[in-house]
Amino acid sequence: MDNKNFAIGVLSTTAVILLVGVVVLQSLPHPAFASGVTASTGEFVATVGTMTINDEELLFIYNTQSERMGIYRYDASQSKIDLVDGIDFKDLNKPGAAPAGGQTAPGKKRTP
Q1: Domain limits at 71?
Q2: Within 13 A of 92's CA, how many CA atoms are on the CB side?
Q3: pLDDT in tens, 12-56
Q4: Beta strands at 38-41 and 44-51: parallel, antiparallel or unpaired
Q5: How do beta strands 68-75 and 80-88 pair?
Q6: Is the pTM of this model over 0.70?
Q7: Domains in the chain, number
Q8: Pairing of strands 56-63, 44-51
């Protein structure tokens, strides 16, 4: 066998291996992630995010009129949507309200 035929054989084998790899990678299912998607209509703003602790996807719905946000998650085992938490942002704008993170407002003493 001469060098030319050997090189053709090696290149053909490499091309077949690479083609099989591309076909296998393209045929694998790809999970759909919706993080970073935001939609707004009227007085509502909805966005999705993930919680890395339980690999859960959460839906955040903010009402700009009442300044409240609801956080929801989908429970696949029971096929229902659960309210995780609700936040009232009006309380944060009041004078003397504690900032987020559990810190006291400037000039206020923290009571144990």
Answers
A1: 38-90
A2: 12
A3: 999 999 999 999 988 888 776 666 678 888 899 998 877 767 667
A4: antiparallel
A5: antiparallel
A6: no
A7: 1
A8: antiparallel
